[in-house]
# Entry
Amino acid sequence: MVDDPSSAGRRAGAFRRHAPRPYARARVVLFPHGGGSASYYRTWAAAAPWDIEFLAVQYPGREDRYAEPVPADIQGIAAALAEELPDDGPPLPTVLFGHSMGAVVAYECARRLSAAGEPPRRLVVSGHPAPVLTRPGRVHLGTDEELVEELRRTEATHRDILDNAALVQAFLPVIRGDYRLSETYRPAPGDRLKTPVTVVYGDRDPEIHAWEAEGWREVTGEPCEFHTFEGGHFYLDEHRDAVVELLTARARAASDASAAPWLSAP
# Structure
């Protein structure tokens, strides 16, 4: 079920339907980057066409889920999300999209959905090396000042927030927790996905090189395609409409593929 976070007296779930699409024929589930939240994708949902529903994931520990503890690892987040994926309407072909940390959360979620016999129709990953090439790191062990400098370097957080000491103190524990999740993530061995994969990244992104992107071919037995945009790690901010269009096209293709057997039936 998709909870309405405005409902009083009720614990919010993990999914946010910012712009309902009652006649949707396919769904795109959006996984935020580390330190990000479902609200990052609010304008994406508004920009989606009438026939494609965009659902945004809200991780524990932020915004209306601020009081909830963050799971110990990415696998724990993915397991909870796969279990909670909305089933409050007719089954829809589903595309998963994740940026940065969200890419591996989406990947782990796809693995669990596939194991349950409900694989997504496509996995779209953005701004992150292939799972086995995930870079270890120690940013989460640094001082608050070092963590803020890392955020400035990657441009992962608006400078107005980083220059506000009160805001920094409020959200820094979540940022540190997400860096811990990302820097300690290691994928467990398992079967390849039976889901096509699309890899997207900025051509000046220091967090992913072309050979690290190519590594995503190894996670699936299906085709893997690649798209690059001008920009750094947050090329998304400049190319939102183009990425929404790409996701819409893949979701519609998934819907058409699902309908094909029925269209050919006598």
